[in-house]
Amino acid sequence: MKRLAIPILLAMAAIPLPLAAANPKAGQQGKKQLTPEIINSGGGRRFFGGLIRLEWRPGTEQLSYIKVEGEPPKMQMKIMLRDAASGNEQEVPEPAGDHHLSLFSYKWSPQGDKLLVEGGSDLWLMDLNGGEPRRLTADEEEKENITFSPDGTKVGFVENNNIYMVEVATGLQKQLTTDGNENLMNGKLDWVYEEELLQRGTAPAYVWSPDGKKIAYLSLDDTPVPKYPVTHYISDHVTLTDQRFPQPGDPNPIPGMHVVTVTEDEPKIWNYPLKAPEAEYISPDFTWTPDSKNVAFSTMNRSQTDLKVHLWDAESGADRTLLEEQDRYWINAIDAPNFLKSGKEFLWLSERDGWLHLYLYDIDGHQERELGTGDWAVDRPSLTNPGLTASQVDENTGWVYFLSNNPDPRERQVYRVRLESGEMRRLTKDAGTHGVELSPDGKYFIDNFSSITTPPETRLLTADGTAVATLNKMNDPWTDYAQGTTEFLTLKADDGTPLYARMVKPPGFDPNKKYPVLVDVYGGPDVQIVRNTWGDTSAEDQLYAERGYIIWSLDNRGSSGRGHAFESVIFEHMGQHEVEDQLAGISYLKTLPYIDGNRIGVHGWSYGGYMTLELLTHAPNVFKCGAAGGPVTAWKFYDSIYTERYMRTPQENPEGYHDSSPVNFAGKLTAKVLLIHGTDDDNVHMQNTMNFVEALVKAKVPFELYLQPGERHGFASPSARLYLSERELEFFKANL
Description:
Elements: H1 8-13, H2 36-39, E1 50-56, E2 62-69, E3 76-83, E4 89-91, E5 101-108, E6 114-119, E7 122-127, E8 134-135, E9 144-148, E10 154-159, E11 162-167, E12 173-175, E13 184-186, H3 191-196, E14 206-208, E15 214-221, E16 227-232, E17 239-244, E18 254-261, E19 269-271, E20 281-282, E21 287-288, E22 295-300, E23 306-312, E24 319-326, E25 338-339, E26 345-350, E27 357-362, E28 367-371, E29 378-379, E30 392-394, E31 399-404, E32 413-418, E33 424-426, E34 437-438, E35 444-449, E36 457-462, E37 467-473, E38 485-492, E39 498-505, E40 515-520, H4 539-546, E41 550-555, H5 564-567, H6 576-590, E42 595-605, H7 607-618, E43 625-629, H8 640-647, H9 654-659, E44 672-678, H10 687-699, E45 704-708, H11 718-735
Parallel strand pairs: 40-41, 40-42, 42-43, 43-44, 44-45
Antiparallel strand pairs: 1-2, 2-3, 3-4, 5-6, 6-7, 7-8, 9-10, 10-11, 11-12, 13-15, 14-15, 15-18, 16-17, 18-19, 20-22, 21-22, 22-23, 23-24, 25-26, 26-27, 27-28, 29-31, 30-31, 31-32, 32-33, 34-35, 35-36, 36-37, 38-39, 39-41
Helix pairs in contact: 6-7
């Protein structure tokens, strides 16, 4: 389960947009009023203007990016090149002909001399000098997980669950695997693996060897996995889609690790002999040693407490354990080893000391040193740039670059550390959230920066953190609208643990008035919502603040960013500590003279929907009303990998499953409740809300229900998102 993330192109059309915190003038006279139509309309798309898909051109000091001009439906995209040293900018000539190519899909060849783009169901090569693009494939089949070989002479892709390659020079196409079918996937992930095990969003489940002669790939056999029927109502005849979805205790996908040759006339495949039960899962993040001899991949037991990194020579069959990680609760870090070019050392991510840190190992699996210690964590790159690893190495200078939440867990700063000594240096200074993408020669890095008051800026810095240029600065599209003020606060849990919270006060806040409170909650593991970043206070938050509500969010124990001990308190009893900490926040709020303690509501989505129902059923006298979107109502209904990580199986932990599922406490609900679910939800299935409705009916508890046909876990269509905003706004107006 992840905090909802909508792809950028979809976001440009639909998602409510972030608003910065403001220092409102008295009453903010003359400011426009926000409405559900405004925060869901195309007018806010200006926020996404500027540069997208920014990355380094391989082998150069040039940046490439897509420049967005205009607004839909007349929005235009251009691929641009910018020289880091001089700042000179030039446009990559638009390809001749009308081939309906998707520039947004562009990929650089490893040599930086060609661009690969998608057009319809086929692949095309663009020349940087313009002219007619060259078609690489010509069929009607969808191609997924498209990659260049390291030498740029071949392109790999997945079609109909099999791996193919095509030669760039000749267009000769070759099928490398033949056993892929509806239930067996080669080189791509099924739903549960992609949702719960992939660390960097979306990525191929195959990797080229450095010499380009072989491909290592993961296979997943979903045959034993139970089917869940997703019903589609918006058609003349109702249809079903059978989704392979393992619930806790169910059979999981059967994984396999393989290597296939690419250069031989008839591909040869080696299969790794998995040993059950310690190899229930294979991490989808794996790699090759620099000499192309060994594949490094990780296996994990079903409880996700024991991880082994294998070094496998497919040709000889030799296999040895490179290192092993164990944890009594669960293992979060399952990234592949990051091998240095020499092949004699590698970097490894581990939470073994309670915080996610980098370690340097030799090729024999002996730890050489920990690269930085302390109560802070390395942070993985944003999902908007899935190609980046958590550590980026410049071996010429011996520096490793990474993101960290040191010194403030609500921020992300760029650091670098010496491979040989472990000496650390902070490179970014501005309070807020930074990103890092190192140039191929290690001389520069891109810093994607924002804060609660600063819209996103794309900055270019030298390797030591010296500012070179601001490449793009997004304007605040909401300056004409009344905005509330965001404040960060710290309070304590019942055991003394500091908890971070965020409060949004209405425009023209009057400390002598009494305000109702709307709690915006998530609370689940691997997510942190109180962050000093643009959009932490959303347009929806400001819409409610403008209507006179105080918005409150708190990261309880069990959420991420504060170390493994902070997160793992939820083990085998989800909801318990989360509710305690959220109630500690409510107790604090009630001490404030401007809070109306009798008018407190709560809303959330996904795990936040679950937390909304947990709070309403376990603290029925605290909240006046709540709206739960896409909620888990019983953990036995959610997927195996996520749920068993924190709860084990229902057979191992029946009491925990019972106590952690709000469906079992529906009769205690006294507040007004609005249940919201998309009927096509393939993540948190509608089964959850239907069972909660049944429990409410049996307990004779009144409720409101909003089902949105045709929508999945996050509502995407403009009409559905607008209706959702209006429905929730009216619900809280009527009940809070």
